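Listing S7. Sequence submitted for prediction.
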Amino acid sequence: MVTAAALGAAGCDAVGGDASAPSGAGAKEGRPSPRPTPVWDTSPSSVAAVGDSITTGFDACSVLADCPEVSWATGSSEEVDSLAVRLLGRAGAAERSWNHAVTGARMADLPGQMARAVRRAPQLVTVLAGANDACRDTVSAMTPVADFRADFQEAMNTLREALPETQVYVASVPNLKRLWSQGRTNALGKQVWKLGICPSMLGDADALDEAATLRRETVQKRVEDYNEVLEEVCAADRRCRYDGGAVHDYRFGTEQLSRWDWFHPSVDGQARLAEIAYRTVTAERP
């Protein structure tokens, strides 16, 4: 569920302004033409986060509890060095970053979170959501892709109606199948999973029969479909940057997983997420 890797970001940053060749007296005198204003600001001055338990730091510090101070997006922990701290400095992050993520949230909850975020008029909004849409009691209960798209688009519309120039960083949904392959090596982790953590992927963790394999592949394909939606919706908005699949593709190990549930990011995992986000947000041209 975690981070740090190569970052190509899918098309979301265009350059605005008139870049045509100079003409008239100014050109004849050799004066440089005005530089076009970039659409993407690599140093936004405020940050709001929306999403689920990954962004609330759930199970990173203690069992069954949020730990927002280690959130990859807005946390204050020196161990994590969150995106907000990297962009704003520690004092600036304390004053100008806000975390609206909610543990257990699905994409259907994002429009409401976004509505709360816009009240602060942030210059950057971070989005990391979708794991709970795939982590359901059964495969059939996963959020349909069309509904996922509609909910994400509604969240983006909510933002754009209020704040047309606010930037958006969108993280890909983590690789749940890799999480299963890493966590199943830990006996304690597998016992915790039996309490109902992501049954669609993690249920019967040791089962390798055809039915179990098909179930996991179906969940994995749904996550890939969700990421395709995130990329496509983001690409249609010139002030949105998708991480290019970096969170999904990061080859995390057990050290990046919570020692309480072997599912959520550990403090180290949160730091890796922060690295990916910062590289994407500050890239001159992703």
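Caption to Listing S7: primary sequence and predicted structure tokens for the chain studied. The radius of gyration is 20 Å. Strands lie at 47-51, 97-99, 124-128, 167-170, 240-242.
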